[in-house]
Structures are given as structure tokens and as C-alpha cells.
Prior knowledge:
Elements: H1 4-7, H2 15-40, H3 52-59, E1 77-85, E2 88-96, E3 105-111, E4 116-126, E5 129-137, E6 148-155, E7 161-165, E8 171-176
Antiparallel strand pairs: 1-2, 1-8, 2-3, 3-4, 4-5, 5-6, 6-7, 7-8
Amino acid sequence: MPDPSADAPRSGMSPAAWGAISAIAVAAIGAVVTLTTNWWQRSPPKAEARPAAAVAAATDPEAAPAPGLADPARWAGAWSGAFDEDGQRRRIELSVTPGCAKGKACGTIRVPHVPCTGEITLADVRPEGAEFRVERFKPGSAAACEPGAGEVFRETPEGALAYTATYSGATGVLTRAD
């Protein structure tokens, strides 16, 4: 007896049709993965104008402070104010030259009551502020003026400079004088 299912018309697709559909699906998936990968890749960062301190930091790691630290290069100009030491209020003047960077001459500091006027060099930049070294005192400075580090300044939120003398504990605030 003949098999009745052999004579019945088939419903569905032939194995060749399934092969063609599979090949098209694989090609479509490959195209989607390729396009998605290319679209999601980041484009190279655009060149931005950078402050001189950032450019200096890129070429000389010692020249500019790390992000979040004091940046004396931004303080260029004249500053004046007062500090308290041993119950006495004293005047202080600071002049910072443009391009101030670690290990470089950065201007002058003057304490009129002593009197002392000397050149400052940026010694270090730490979280508590920028520490300057004073040396090469100007004629007319008292014999009591001694070279060395310990003059620490940090910018306040108001744009002033907080001052601390690490060797004496004197503290004060300077504001722009120019």
C-alpha cells in the first residue's frame, strides 16, 4: 500500500529556502554589529584652548600644580593686606609676576615694619597652599631678614589670598592692590 503522506502536497518552505533565509539573517546581523560598533566609537577629543599653566604642566610636570591645588600663575599682580603675629597687626605686600611656576622666580614680598623686601621663588604647591621661598633681600632690608621657605598663600573663595608664615604662625589675608 502506498504511503498517503508522500502524495500529500507539502506546506512550508523547502530546505533551500531556509538556507537562503539563514544566510540573509547572518548577513543582516553582521551588518548591524559592524554599524553599531562604528557609530558607538568615540570620536577623538577636539583640541581646546588651554591656559598657559595647563600647557606648562603638559610639557613640564613640575611647572604647574595638579588640579585642585593652588595656581600662583593666576595670582599675577600686586597684593596687599595685613597679618597677625604675637598680637600685633602688621602690613604685608606681595607682587607676583606672570608665569609663576615651581622652582622659578615669582616676584617680591615686602614686610614694611621689619623692614624686609625680598625676591620670592615658588618652592612647593600642596593642598594647604603655595609655599614661597624668600631670598636676595633688597638694599634697606634689616639684618633680621633671613632667607628661606615658609611663606604660604592660598586663594580664598572670595578671591583673596590667605597667608600663613609656617616659621612663626602668623596669619593674614591679602587682596588685590592693582
